[in-house]
Model the fold of this input.
Amino acid sequence: MIQTTFPDRAVMAELLAKMLWEIKAVHFNAETPYKYASGIMSPVYIDCRKLLSFPRVRSTVMDFAASTLLRDAGFEQFDCIAGGETAGIPFAALLADRLGLPMIYVRKKPKGHGRNAQIEGDMKEGARVLIIEDLTTAGGSMFTFIDAIRAAGGIVDHGMALFFYGIFQEAHQRFANGKVQFHHIATWREVLAIAKEQKLFDDKTLQEVEAFLDAPLAWSARNGGVSELSL
Done:
């Protein structure tokens, strides 16, 4: 099934933010911050994998992803869709089905036995590949997959995350340096806007979350986390 309708970008972002709250995929906790793999301490946490458990939500989000790509990248720009291990794999399968394209997936590292493969599926030499993940913080994990695809002879000019943190300048620099056009549907700003509109938390919590979004590394450092990200 190929999606050919094009909702307004702001509408898609707002609806995805609402869906994430509705399925309880978003968590705010300024008193006991969450620690990310990067060492950042944060008052916000999101689990986009929960989208898979809600068919109506899942279908709508994949419609939004297809619309975003067709509008921003083009209609005939990809030969296959790649999912990154592990959260990106089901979304790659869903998006490939939406766009009528083959699907592959990429391991974080070669599996260490058998063919020692890092890429599973059929990718032709010179194939134009879109890599998709459920979310991206600063782009580091996505480039692990992009580098593997490029090393295997694929061409990666575009990457997509359903949800983009949108608060780290390092992310924009990484995609620019890596010559990858990055696409996404919603960010933390839309999620915070819904929390404010629906009064989901007390004012102090919302203020702390906004302070984190405005200066995430400074907030992290004040709360025992790292104060910089390495590219």
Notes: The two ends are 38 Å apart (CA to CA).
